[in-house]
Design a protein that fits this description.
Strands 1, 2, 3, 4, 5, 6, 7 and 8 form an eight-stranded antiparallel sheet that branches. The radius of gyration is 20 Å and the shape is globular. The chain folds into two domains: 163 residues, Jelly Rolls (Sandwich); 104 residues, Arc Repressor Mutant, subunit A, CATH 1.10.10.60. The protein is of the alpha+beta class.
């Protein structure tokens, strides 16, 4: 059954956050995107550029076209029905048509989105994480500056659109099986009880309550919860919580948050204890990951 273009959630925002000025601005941007996307004069591929403040959110919604989510700076946290994604500036997320998704911005985000219709590279997944090379990045940045109204054949907008489709098809064939890319995809259970637990932990990553505690709260044995958790997420509860914390750390480290602040936010007694967990999940230290995601520019002073 077709979903509407934008599915509003009354008095709520994704990820359990409060309604804020940033969220109101995000909702206005979402309305602009929806209005533009429904125009019949738009080409098969078109782009938009939006600047978001940190903490801005877009409520759960769908699009009739596939959407490529990309940020030149900042991090986008995206939630689809079965996955929570971390989209850093070296990656983009391709969301197929009519797949419900919600967004949260971590840090100030320079958001660049491209709509594609049809999207033969989408497949049956809820989303596909793609590597963004220099050519794809520049093509996206150039496309969002072009007029969206009926670009003539051979125009710059037309050439860019064709190039982006070609580059997306090529990127979709790459196997992003690295430890970091795996950590950027956090599976979410579908069972309402498990979903409630996961939402509470995502809202408060430092929470260390056991499955026994959660079982008492929601009226299920810890063994039952553990069995369902393994079946629905493919991993034990403790491992899921560790990956959730690692993915949250990826967001914050990518926006240059100090490592000791990240450790404290996630509930670790000190940066060393946090680093042990992070290295166990991502096979690198927090400092190495942060340096990788925030490389010094040639003209930047070295400290």
């Amino acid at each position: 059954m077709d979903k509407s273009l934008v599915k509003p959630v009354a008095h709520a925002t994704p990820f359990g956050g409060p309604v804020t000025a940033a969220n109101s601005a995000a909702s206005a941007n979402l309305a602009v995107k929806a209005s533009a996307e429904n125009r019949p004069d738009l080409p098969i591929v078109f782009g938009q550029a939006i600047e978001y403040e940190s903490g801005a959110r877009e409520i759960a919604h769908t699009h009739p076209r596939a959407q490529l989510l990309y940020a030149t700076s900042g991090v986008i946290r995206v939630r689809t029905p079965g996955t929570s994604w971390v989209v850093t500036p070296d990656r983009a997320l391709l969301v197929p048509p009519r797949v419900e998704h919600e967004l949260e911005m971590v840090g100030k985000v320079s958001f660049r989105t491209v709509y594609v219709d049809p999207c033969p590279m989408c497949g049956d997944e809820e989303g596909r994480l793609l590597a963004v090379n220099a050519l794809l990045r520049e093509a996206i940045l150039a496309l969002v500056t072009q007029p969206a109204r009926n670009p003539p054949p051979g125009s710059l907008a037309d050439v860019l659109a064709q190039l982006i489709v070609h580059l997306l098809a090529a990127a979709a064939t790459e196997d992003l099986g690295s430890i970091v890319d795996q950590a950027a995809r956090l599976p979410l259970p579908q069972h309402p009880r498990l979903r409630k637990i996961c939402q509470a932990l995502i809202d408060e990553p430092a929470n260390s309550d056991s499955l026994e505690y959660w079982g008492d709260r929601i009226g299920a044995s810890s063994r039952t919860l553990a069995r369902h958790f393994q079946r629905e997420t493919g991993m034990p509860f403790a491992k899921w919580r560790e990956q959730m914390r690692a993915s949250e750390a990826m967001c914050r480290l990518s926006t240059s948050t100090p490592i000791n602040e990240v450790a404290a936010y996630l509930g670790y007694a000190d940066a060393n204890t946090f680093a042990v967990m992070f290295k166990r999940v991502l096979h690198m230290t927090p400092l190495k990951y942060q340096s990788m995601m925030n490389p010094a520019t040639p003209d930047a002073p070295q400290g």
